[in-house]
Amino acid sequence: MIKSKLGGFLKNKQGFLRNFSILTFASLFAVAVNLLVNIYLTRAVSTEIYGAYGVVLSVVNILLVMSSLGLRHIVIINIARNQTDSKFHFENAMILRVLGYFIIAILYFGYSLIINNYSLYFNLLILVYLLLLSIWDGIQNLAFGMERMEFTGYLNAGGYFLILMLLIIVPSKDITVETILIILILVQVIKNAFYYKICTKINLLTYVNNKTLIDKEYLIQLFRKSFPYYIMAFLTLFTSQVPILFLEKNSNLSEVAYLNAANKLMIPISLILSTALTALFPNLAKSYLKDKIKFMKNISNALIFILIFGSIGCLLINLFREEIVEIVFGDNYTNTGVILMTQAWFVLFNTIFGLIGLVLGATDNQKLLAKLSICYALVNTPILWYGSYFGAKYVSYAYLIGGIINMAYHYYFFLKVLPKKIDSKITLYFFATLFGGIFLSIIMPVNLNLVFRVLMALFLILILGVFIKKKFIKNRTYE
After folding, report:
1. 218: exposed, middle or buried (Cβ count in 10 Å: 0-12, 13-18, 19+)
2. What are phi and psi of 404, to 5 degrees?
3. How many CB atoms lie within 10 A of CB 86?
4. What are phi and psi of 212, to 5 degrees?
5. Any idea which UniProt keywords this protein has (predicted)?
6. What is the DSSP string of 423-457?
7. Of the candidates 56, 64, 62, 29, which has an alpha carbon nearest to the alpha carbon of residue 179?
8. H-helix or E-strand containing 175?
């Protein structure tokens, strides 16, 4: 019986469960290999080099957000709602992406000549990698809008594996940030070529005959609709990427390495939670227009899923945080256990904020979303700036404090924009579980007997298993 139900939703190529399950499982190998890449780097290079590598990635991510013009969500919505004419939306979006890239590339190049400490050659490598990532994101938006999400996981897995192999080939003494960046560029070229080829081969680029592909009025409209997301993404940088630069300036590169290492260990739980949101988004965009009851059902269950899975994941990480860090990264990173615990809870907060953002986007409340992003940045940035003076540990505490403060008013507006009232019990369970879990993590001694901690972990896993069986297998919550 369970087998037939699983087969049912997997055959539905555009259902939430199919998208979520395939995208998740396809990405699990990618996560594992990516973690191996970072484990290898932490053991092959000094904390200073690993920290410098983290700074470069933050710079690239900042430039990527600034050049993307906030197009991602609107393009996915447009393609999801017009799947017989995806080529029109894809090509117009790529025109804006290229325009945004050249504007940011010129600004960055001018900045690098005046202030930046990197060489001209290194800055050119950064700009080449930025262009490749921008193209990847554009192709990915096409696939996500057509609700064919598994290819991202497959290609990322292959890409990380190739990166690992190339790093192993290079002698440890020759691994520099520049070497790593060149490897990333080579692998990204291969990934982009394969992704576009796959999309064309399975006919994801659909079009309407006799329709002009490039539309000036549509380009203007697309930019206007995307602008609130652009503001949101730009402001989010102040709490996602800019703190890395704060640490570099106010502490040192080793502290950047500690925070980076903890973040990499958070990839598995972050992947599953963010994948759930990615798979849910096209479904929300369509159901809001066609079926408000289904829309509310998916929102309620998504909130419950994220909360239960995330909280249990955070508690499991907290139980073994010291052992995890020591086994994975070695003695140089033994002081990152507390950072790992606080970052785990911040990932959960971030996922909930992401769900709220998706709901605001699906209900066409982009302006409110932009306003909330402004408030979020205004609250978090000074807290993170102050924490960066005391190292990675206090930056991670600053993340958590900012998340708690921002959650109160974000949740209020989340409830306000929903087409129907959400069950008050869900709200009660939401805050009780969230803050109860954080309190338990803080007071839980890290030196508890290992056998006792293993038993606690098994109990938490049992709870999660019962929840998944009830909500996903038995009742088939998402369709």
Report:
1. middle
2. -65, -45
3. 24
4. -65, 125
5. Cell membrane, Membrane, Transmembrane, Transmembrane helix
6. PHHHHHHHHHHHHHHHHHHHHS-TTS-HHHHHHHH
7. 56
8. none
Q: Scan for tokens 């539905």, then name that residue.
A: 12
Return d(Cα 131, Cα 67) in angstroms, integer: 9
- Torsion (CA) 34, 35, 41, 42 in degrees, nearest 10: 160
Structure token digits, residue 92: 């117009």
pLDDT tens-place string over residues 125-146 = 999 999 999 999 888 888 888 7
Tell me the per-residue pLDDT of 87-100, one tens digit each, with 9 for 90 and over: 787 888 888 889 99
Provide the residue count of the chain: 479
1-15, 60-74, 401-415, range with the lowest pLDDT? 1-15
Q: Sign of dihedral through CA atoms 290, 411, 236, 240?
A: negative
Tokens of residue 52, six digits: 């410098």
d(C-alpha 284, C-alpha 286), whole Å: 5
The DSSP call for residue 390 is T
Q: Which of these, 384, 342, 48, lies nearest to 244 by C-alpha position?
A: 384
**pTM of the predicted model as reported, rounded to 2 decimal places:** 0.76
Amino acid at 442: I
Q: How many angstroms separate the CA atoms of 405 and 408, rounded?
A: 6
- C-alpha 324/C-alpha 155 separation (Å) is 28
Q: What angle do CA 48, 52, 53 make, to 5 degrees?
A: 120
| pLDDT band for position 8 (cuts 50, 70, 90) | very low
Would you state the structure tokens that stand for residue 387, as one six-digit string? 């924490």
69: left (phi over 0), alpha (psi -120 to 50) or beta: left
